[in-house]
Amino acid sequence: MIRLIIGISVRTGQIAVMQQEDNSLKELEALQKFLPFTPSETSYRMGWKGMHAVRYRRIPDSGGFSLPPVSLHAINLTLRPPKKLNVRSEGLKLDRPLPTGSISLIPAGSAVLADWQGNRDLLRIYLKPSIVARVATESFKFDSTRTVVPPIYFLDAPGLRSAIMAVYHELRVGGGEGEQLLVESLAIILSVHLIRHITGMHRPPLRAEAVLPRPKLHTVIEYIMENVEAGPTLEQMASVANLSPYHFVRQFKAATGLTPYQYVIHRRVERAQQLLQKNGELSLAEVAVRTGFSDQSHFTSLFKRIIGVTPGQFRIAQESGKSPQAPREIERQAY
């Protein structure tokens, strides 16, 4: 019988959560001292909570390391395998390279011994066990007191792989508004895929009760509009709906067709359109700030992706009395 995952860390308030995040980050930074190579990209200074991403491109042609246990699950995506690879962890042995695109999981609390020969490229996602635990207990009804995460090698899971690459995309282009909301959402998505593949469970059909009820949807939308410039977090919006983040994301998307992150961005762009139409004295940078975007560049990129023209082109079209390109449907991906 397959046993699932997890160990729950109890939250005792915002200060305790911040201390946990600080401790996790210190763990990962200390772990780097045991590696004979440095990461090419990390999320360590991006303020992420609950999850971190690391890309290792410049790995020596041959070498080895012995890593102590850490308190986070490590999900690895092989981007380029070495010619030879040996890994020892939790009593399991791996004596051949993992193919390109394969996924492996090193559970929290596991020491790792590895050596290799040949160039390799690796993307690693560190995920807090408490996030996986929350999804498992709230959405899969597992008993968290009797669950254990097994180490996994050679996992071919397209959905999980896509989620990992979405995290990497945020690592490369993130830093703008809504970033933590997107990181929280991706951590939940990773957890769901992880649980499904470990247990062999598949997504059940969407039930009518899985759609966010209209009164709750109205309340959440009011909250979003009141706080759209500040950037409401996933936890905050879920709390307004009195739901877990996992259930809230599913029910909100079922009701609106959009993820909470996409909906927030769409509302910000709508507010930006209003300012561009009514206040010609505001610079584009000022419009970006007033609508909650972190900088003009990110504002312009998302505005064009949703509306089809840049903010500047939209303003010129309004001033000349011409209609800009018809708005596009929001892309159904985490942009």
Structure in words:
The protein has 335 residues and is of the alpha+beta class. The chain folds into three domains: 32-199, Jelly Rolls (Sandwich); 208-257; 262-320, Homeodomain-like (Arc Repressor Mutant, subunit A, Orthogonal Bundle). The chain is built from eleven helices and ten strands. The strands form two sheets. A six-stranded antiparallel beta sheet has the order 1-2-9-4-7-10. Strand 1 and strand 2 (51-56) form a beta hairpin. The longest helix is centred in the middle third of the chain and has 21 residues, at 179-199. The radius of gyration is 22 Å and the shape is globular. Residues 1-18, 202-206 and 323-335 have low confidence and may be disordered.
Features of the shown structure:
Arc Repressor Mutant, subunit A, single chain, four-stranded antiparallel β-sheet, disordered C terminus, Jelly Rolls, 335 residues, disordered N terminus, globular, alpha+beta
Domains (count):
3
The shape is globular
Name the CATH homologous superfamily of the largest domain.
Answer: Jelly Rolls
- Output the CATH class name of the largest domain: Mainly Beta
Estimate the strand proportion: 15-25%
**Order of strands in the sheet with the most strands?**
1-2-9-4-7-10
CATH topology of the largest domain: Jelly Rolls
Average pLDDT: 80
Q: Radius of gyration over alpha carbons?
A: 22 Å
| Major pleated sheet | 6 strands, antiparallel
Per DSSP, the total helix count is: 11
Low-confidence spans? 1-18, 202-206, 323-335
Topology as H/E string?
A: HEEEEEEEEEHEHHHHHHHHH
